[in-house]
Amino acid sequence: MADSTYPMPGSLAEAPRQRWSQAAILEWLHSWVTTVDHKKLGILYMLYSIFFLLVGGVEAILIRIQLMQPNLHFISPQVFNRLFTMHGTTMVFLVGMTYIFGFANYLIPLMIGARDMAFPRLNALSFWLTFFGGLLLYYSFIGGGGLYGQGNAPDVGWWAYAPLTSRAFTPGHSTDYWALSLIVTGFGTIGASVNVVATALCMRCKGMTLMRLPLFVWLNVVTSALALITITPLTAAQIMLLIDRYLGGHFFDTQAGGSAVVWAHFFWIFGHPEVYVLVLPAFAIANEVIPVFSRKAIFGYPAMAAASVAIAFVSLGVWAHHMFTIGMTSVGNAFFVLSTMLVGIPTGIKIFNWIATMWGGKIRFATPMLFCTGFLVQFLLAGLTGIMLSVAPWDWQLHNSYFVIAHFHYVLVGGIVFCIFAGIYYWYPKVTGRMLSETLGKWHFWLFVIGFHITFDLMHIPGLLGMPRSIYTYEANRGWGTLNMIISIGGLIQAVAVLVFAVNLVWSYFKGKEAGNDPWDAWTLEWAAASPPPAYNFATDPVVTSRRPLWDLKHPEDPDWKYE
Amino acid sequence: MLAKCFRCVNCAARSLCLLAVFLASHALFAEGPLSTPSIFAPASTPASSIYELSLFVLAITGGIFVTVAGLIAYVIFRFRQHGQDDVSEPAQIYGSTQVELAWTVIPVLIVVVLFLTTARMIFAIQDAPKPKSALDVTVVGHQFWWEFNYPKLGIRAVNELHVPLSSPQDPKPTFLTLLSADVMHSFWVPQLSGKIDLIPNHVNNLWIDPQHPGLYVGQCGQFCGVQHAKMLLRVYVDTPEQFAAWVKNQQQPAVSDDRVAEGRHVFETQACMNCHTVTGTAATGRFGPDLTHLMSRDTLASGATTNTPENLREWTRNPDTYKPGSLMPAMQLSDQQLDQVTAYLATLR
């Protein structure tokens, strides 16, 4: 395997150092804009994702400042509504949907021993569509007012329930920017998903059967297949909304016989599987990090792959659990209670398999593993509050309350963001050739985990005490004030942690410790390539004989393939 | 370092448990309405049933949490690497069918139990038969206020819902039919029942049978626009005598008082009457709240402020003072007109 890092004749593993003349800078920038290299596109996706994580984070902080005390007037209700709409839309579509393809693009070809994705140009097109979609969404701050002088950015909630989105209730262009930008980023997602599925199915190196595919790749294939199914109804609904708004359609126009409930169905048949689209790639990261840092093979590989497929499949039949309060029949409610509870089974299997992977290992708590451990505990809690919400009568109380906000932030932050951080700490050395600082990493982890628990543990309680979501302020006598103050303070601690992370990213890029090819003593193929890998990844096509090709090389006395 | 982390997590978990216990005990001793509308202080059958179900679910999920989090904690402490130089690899285990089967079957059993309990509760609450003694109220959601119609009593109340006390001996449940005039809203008074959405073009139903008299607060539970936050709900549970008196008053036409004729003139010649109704006068607008018995209400602007003549004047002068973004326009009345119209409105008991 060692010779696979030798440069091919005529290629250069590393560009010769040159002075930064203006021409060189332009050429460098140009190379990033025109690139079709999966690694560069992966990095672009990640930078984009992190950038919007910071933007969405600033929006969250403004929201939290406004809610610190009852009857505050830090921002107006109009601005507050724009902020929470943009926060949700940004975090789901510009952060969540892009980190997936950041990791997938960078790692899948390396993990399966390929030189690039199946469709490199489609890959570039997808990224730039998504990029443009994000800019379009944020351009609404400038252009959204339209001729009406109405509010600028979208302010209808990220779920944008009809008929609040009709022109009667939302004049101006803010909702149009929202719909159009989601259509555009949706096309980007579809392109990227096609690419991931095609790459994983068609570009595997010799010996890489589906049952030897790293679980990271497996889960990303499932994610992308699920994204292909779920983005479609969202795009359809956005087009219908625009037809309603500009061509006199009546799909969701209740004044003319349209249906608000139909929008909710369209939105959630996208929206619920979307949660799994976001969380499966996080599981994918945990599936790589936990075994390597526990020094053991993943426990129950076939069950893990099967559970992912099962989660994806069942998740297509649970959407109406977001609609228990919309007035379905009792039988309809009961059906969606059952389907929702069923998702808990494959999810439980995953958690047990991760614990079993750690069981009997020699766990090294480097920063990636710290984040994955946090993820395990938090995802367990998020799953349990999910079960509470699946109990429809209880959901009639909890729906649209702060309990729900706490629950899904537990999934999205406690689950997904923790895994994203784990993944970044784990693969940063591969991408840049330098280690992220462990000291700063530990600071980042502890500040973030403390801030996270202060904020989101306590956030369940105002929900139980009757505080609904999406309110810009609340009455002083409700008894929610102290809790909200502490929640906001937790939010600020998380913000500090993310700043530490940002500093770490930049500082380590220049001053970090040299990583070498395989700093974590890991087992999958990407660690056989140089750090950073040359443009062609592997000089010769690798051949694998088991799930852990590098384990086989390091332990010829006890190779994995013996047990297959 | 790690020990600290887990002490931290444990601490958080323990304080959560303590809080749960606190809330539960709170509920056991609470009788009637609270200013904090806790779902753990039910005062009506649907809310109590949900509360009991929630305790059951909390017990099960709590058990799961303790078991699994305990496993995670054990694994972290027992199987951590001891010292940097311990570089030998542990034994590799790839899976175990028996173990995996066990942790698939147990969750399946838990799901069966949870599902059956939940389904039973759904049918019990949602499909409960309506007794003859039930009171009918039609709730119409507006941006950003509530309209309560009592079809059999001929009453159109606003923002403050009055319902009779119900008891097991003398059940007088209130059956709500919920509609919306514009966008989606949601009716949520946590101590009385779970929420249900008010949707244009789609009729929903909800019932409550409050067991303790008093004022129950809640608010709109579905984002409905700029002033979603100040679309507050107040449900007055009246004793039979109080309720009869309230009904009697609401059924009267508006008080007519010649001393405030100027104010009435302002009301009827400015745009006020395009949106508001005062029964027995020329004002028949339906877009805003009915003002026939304005002064019988404790609050203005759907609970945004208390109903005093000063607040009423300020609200009429500039609604944005209490509710920025409310759909009532500031009519640019002169000070004199404001005084007159406030005096007129203050007579509408």
Key descriptive features of the protein:
heterodimer; A: 564 residues; mainly alpha; Cytochrome C Oxidase, Chain A; globular; disordered N terminus; B: 349 residues; alpha+beta; Helix Hairpins; Immunoglobulin-like; 5-stranded mixed β-sheet; 3-stranded mixed β-sheet; 8 helices; 12 strands; 17% strand
CATH architecture of the largest domain in chain B: Sandwich
Number of DSSP strand runs of chain A: 0
Say what the CATH topology of the largest domain in chain B is. Answer: Immunoglobulin-like
Indicate the mean pLDDT of chain B.
91
Termini separation of chain B: 67 Å
Quick one: CATH superfamily of chain A?
Cytochrome c oxidase-like, subunit I domain
Secondary-structure topology with pairs:
The complex is a heterodimer of chains A (564) and B (349).
Chain A: H1 22-33, H2 38-67, H3 77-111, H4 120-143, H5 174-202, H6 215-246, H7 260-294, H8 301-315, H9 330-358, H10 367-390, H11 392-398, H12 402-432, H13 438-464, H14 481-511, H15 549-554
Helix pairs in contact in A: 2-3, 2-4, 2-14, 3-4, 3-5, 3-7, 4-5, 5-6, 6-7, 6-8, 7-8, 7-10, 7-12, 8-9, 9-10, 10-12, 10-13, 12-13, 13-14
Chain B: H1 2-29, H2 45-78, H3 97-126, E1 135-142, E2 145-150, E3 155-158, E4 160-164, E5 174-180, E6 185-187, E7 196-198, E8 204-208, E9 214-219, E10 232-238, H4 240-251, H5 261-269, H6 272-275, E11 299-300, E12 305-306, H7 309-317, H8 335-345
Parallel strand pairs in B: 1-5, 4-10
Antiparallel strand pairs in B: 1-2, 2-3, 5-8, 6-7, 9-10, 11-12
Helix pairs in contact in B: 2-3, 5-8, 7-8
